[in-house]
Amino acid sequence: MGFLDVLLGRTKPVQPKLDDLFALPSAAITLQAASGFTPTGSGSVCFRGVEGKTFSDIQDDVRDLLNMDSGKPGGGLPVEVSRDSYGFTWLVSSHMSDEMDALVTDLHAVNSTLVDNGFGPQLLCTLVAFRDSAERRLALVYLYKRGTFYPFAPLSGERRDNALELQVRGVLGDDLKIEPDLTKWFPVWGAPGL
Question: What is the residue range of 159's domain?
Answer without folding.
Answer: 13-184
